[in-house]
Amino acid sequence: MKPIKELNPQFLESTENKKHLIDYLLGVADNYLILGQRLGELCGHGPNLEPDIALTNISLDMLGQVRSFYQYIAQLRGDKSTEDDIAFLRKEREYKNVLLVEQPNTDFGYVIVRQFFFDVYNRMFLGALQQSADETLRALAFKGIKEASYHERFSGDWLKRLGDGTEESKTRVQQAVNDLWIYTDELFHTTNADDAMIAAGVAPDMLQLKEYYYEKVGELLSTATLEIPEVEYFQKGGKEGLHSEHMGYILTEMQYMQRAYPDSKW
Amino acid sequence: MSEAEIKNLEVQFDAKIARDEKIEPKDWMPEKYRKTHIRQISQHAHSEIVGMLPEGNWITRAPSLRRKVALLAKVQDEAGHGLYLYSACETLGITREQLYEDLHSGKAKYSSIFNYPTMTWADMGAIGWLVDGAAIINQVPLCSTSFGPYARAMVRVCKEESFHQRQGYEIMLSLCNGSEEQKEMAQDALNRWWWPSLMMLGPTDAASTHTEQSMKWKLKRKTNDELRQQFIDQTVPQAELLGLTIPDPDLKWNDEKGSYDFGEIDWDEFWQVVKGHGPMNKKRLDDRRNAWNNGAWVREAATAYAAKQKLKKEETAQAV
Ligand SMILES: [Fe+2]
Ligand SMILES: [Fe+2]
Ligand SMILES: [Fe+2]
């Protein structure tokens, strides 16, 4: 696909632009990291072998994406930092993932709803990113789009099974929808860095796709015979580094080895 | 069928195996063959999925993204092995649900090695290197076993197990090339996993039952003691290459027999763990039961949804 804009070759020579690009990329990639980590907790504990294998696959795809993004960030930084420094050596406030992906694996219903809310967004995002003015991002989007559509189909199919399955599954998954709905709006928030990248044509303007997102999600929820929650207030903050109380525990576990054995090779 | 007719079928059956032909699920087979195979294949399948737990324990703490991805993929492979093996077992006329029930009730066994805890990251190396290593020695002969679905499953499984073993050894190698602390971690893991790995090859020949029958059906090619010797002879040089010490003061090369002599295995410990009293037996079974019980509503939903969809299809077909 063609970029919507050509990137000015001097663009990255500005320190400010570069910093914005890095912050923007962290905002994208940290979602993959934290969701991949959350899904990793489930490996071996699924309701049956097939969904266990499928969720592990999604976790693997998320981690694959995150490595590509962090490697790109490391390259932009031009210092000695590696993908692992970026993944493991930041403090709570420096992670820029949305609150949705750090929500716990309360039960299989929550796992599927969290995944579906993210997958619909992610597929739209990668679709739009294929027109980024940045060549590396175009390539990453192109690489990721196929698996993203697969994820969306997987979580959407399960949402239908759970919604239109038994009384119990319907009650449970509706509860998950109600609880997680308040985290969907944040997906469309932009930081200053995001705005700068949108202006430069590097980042897609996801706000334009927001209506379409809720249409898609709503459509599937009604096929799944589930209700669309009506809420007055949404939660936000993750993208600015203001996380839930879960985040500290995720990081404690994830960073344990790197913190206990600094500067080691594994 | 008369007794003479059955006898005749059995003679033909044995001859078929002796000619190295495969027995397929639809073929006639003695009841004992069927039962033995259900027991062995399901035990193997259970080992794969219980085996996901000790390594799954380190996924969230893996020390680098590369290692996290590799570990996830490995544990996922074990789930795949479980899947092929349960499917092979199902061809013998038993369901996966029944097999799980036997696992959860404690009636069915799985490999005892998974009843030890994974305390440090080095255990991910030691398990790949030693446990997958011992599994390969046990399993390669099964690639040409007499029951077709089992043999074919094992061909796929063994390919992936050797990959796991190399990956585990590579984890050990990185540790041994690392800091003093990392090397100590590797040595400690070897100390803890060495003896249980030797026990994985099964009780000593004197104490092992139905070996003769298993030989005839090609469920076994070599005795447990022969396999154990093979494992030791193959592993000692690998430990030397890592610069690690095998925790056995009696281990010594024997020029005359062309293999290593080794110390006494603590068979009391072996039987304690087999009988369900190892450090992690309870936790492993609890984890499996919880995953299954907590997933009941999900499986029920899937079944109910599929039934509704089927009904809808039939109704549309009738309306046309
Ligand atoms: Fe395996
Ligand atoms: Fe195995
Ligand atoms: Fe393995």
TrEMBL record, chain A:
InterPro entries: Aromatic_CoA_ox/epox, Ferritin-like, Ferritin-like_SF, PaaA_PaaC, PaaC
GO cellular component terms, semicolon-separated: cytosol
Superkingdom of source: Bacteria
GO biological process, one term: phenylacetate catabolic process
NCBIfam families to which the protein is assigned, alphabetical: PA_CoA_Oxy3 (TIGR02158)
Protein name as annotated: Ring-1,2-phenylacetyl-CoA epoxidase subunit PaaC
Species this chain originates from: Nonlabens xylanidelens
From TrEMBL, chain B:
Top-level taxon: Bacteria
GO CC annotations on file: cytosol
SUPFAM superfamilies per record: Ferritin-like
Pfam families per the UniProt record, alphabetical: PaaA_PaaC
Record GO terms (molecular function): phenylacetyl-CoA 1,2-epoxidase activity
GO biological process, one term: phenylacetate catabolic process
NCBIfam families listed in its UniProt record: PA_CoA_Oxy1 (TIGR02156)
Name this protein carries in UniProt: Ring-1,2-phenylacetyl-CoA epoxidase subunit PaaA
